[in-house]
Amino acid sequence: MDQNICIASPSLALIKYWGKKRMPGNLTATPSLAVTLGGLETETQVYPGPEDFVLLNGKVQEAERYRGFFEHLRRRLKVDQHFHVRTQNNFPSSAGLASSSSGFAALTCAAARAVDRALSPQALSALARYGSASASRALFGGFVLLPAGARRAEPLLPAEHWPELRILVAVVTEQRKPISSREAMTVTRLTSPYYRSWIRSSPKLIPQAVSALKARDIEALGAAVRLSYSRMHAVLLASDPPLTYWTARTLTVLNSCARLRREGIGVWETMDAGPQVKMLCLSSDVARIKQALSEQDERIRFIEAYPGLAPRFVDRAQREVRYA
Q1: Backbone angles phi, psi at 53, to 5 degrees
Q2: What is the DSSP string of 263-300?
Q3: Of the candidates 69, 74, 70, which has an alpha carbon nearest to the alpha carbon of residue 129?
Q4: Omega before 241 cis (within 30°)?
Q5: d(Cα 275, Cα 13) in Å, to the nearest integer?
Q6: Beta carbons of 289 and 265 less than 8 angstroms apart
Q7: What is the full DSSP assignment across 13-64?
Q8: Burial letters for 65-79: b for 16+ Cβ neighbours within 10 Å, e otherwise?
Q9: CA distance readout (Å), 245 to 11, 90, 98, 190, 271
Q10: What is the chain's pLDDT, residue by residue, as a tens digit (324 residues)?
Q11: What is the DSSP letter of 27?
């Protein structure tokens, strides 16, 4: 069964999507532009079984979270097979680091391989979307676009386009976040007075970000990235009840990033629905950023990521790597 071991990396939205269309299919209400995070990995192995069963980092997962995904998967693959899944992350799970994106991407690829279905990355992207919309992006490496309402993501630029780019993650807590993104999206849609403004304004950042990305203009890209996450969190804060994922240590990092920019060090932060802070910078500035943040709070743990690759299968016996 070693040929069914799949490794996938999470997809970090630089321009965020937040909200789902009110129709079946787990379709996003806004577009998103993302980078696949090399260095962060989910490793997943799938076996045939009498019932669906998911073991994540050694812990049995709630069946309801995966029920709809597995049912859709069986319909699309035209099989009756149930799946036993063993999966693990080398980064904190359900803590605002997009673990669901790499998790469902790896699960989709491994499950298709387990039932001997050879599917294109585009078809796998459409399948993974049912588990997590961001997982549709994690089926591709480098930089990826997911249009609003799209059934699959679109590769935009390969990882090799910007090898000097770094995404420095400041892990401020290892704990699970208090409310899932899926639940929080429903709350904001139903209660936030800013939600409709978010839906209208968010797509306008995409052309700016894509242009900056193609030109490898980190200052212009960073400005768009900061606007996107700030507006998303404004929608969250205006919900009823107000939703916030930030901690005191999160704010320490955000304030430090602002200070570093004033001092001429290029670092632009972003955040998802979680307390961790991800910082865009160039490889030449990583050491100075780490040092400055450690001086503010020595308990912060860092993960250095970079534009990563698409999901891949690992044959442990022969030490081969084959791309999905």
Answers
A1: -150, 125
A2: TT---EEE--SSS-EEEEEEGGGHHHHHHHHHHH-TT-
A3: 69
A4: yes
A5: 15
A6: yes
A7: EEE----B-SSSS--BSS-EEEEEEET--EEEEEEEESS-EEEETTEEPPHH
A8: ebeebbebbbebbeb
A9: 19, 22, 14, 19, 9
A10: 445 689 999 999 999 999 999 878 889 999 999 999 999 999 999 988 899 999 998 899 988 889 999 999 999 999 999 999 999 998 877 655 668 999 999 999 999 999 999 999 999 999 999 999 999 999 999 999 999 999 999 999 999 999 999 999 999 988 888 888 889 999 999 999 999 999 999 999 999 999 999 999 999 999 999 999 999 999 999 999 999 999 999 999 999 999 999 999 999 999 999 899 999 999 999 999 999 999 999 999 999 999 999 999 987 654 344 445
A11: -
Separation between Cα atoms, residue 234 and residue 24, nearest integer Å: 27
Residue found under tokens 């203009």: 217
Strand partners, 301: 171
Beta bridge partner(s), residue 6 = 44, 313
Task: Check residue 170 and report its DSSP letter.
Answer: E
User: Can you tell me the distance from the alpha carbon of 267 to that of 282, in angstroms, rounded to the nearest whole number?
Assistant: 8
Sorted by where each starts, the structural domains of the chain and their CATH numbers stand as 2-158+308-323 (3.30.230.10), 165-307 (3.30.70.890)
Token match 């990092």: residue? 253
CA-wise closest residue to 255 among 220, 311, 300:
300
């998911």: which residue's tokens? Answer: 54
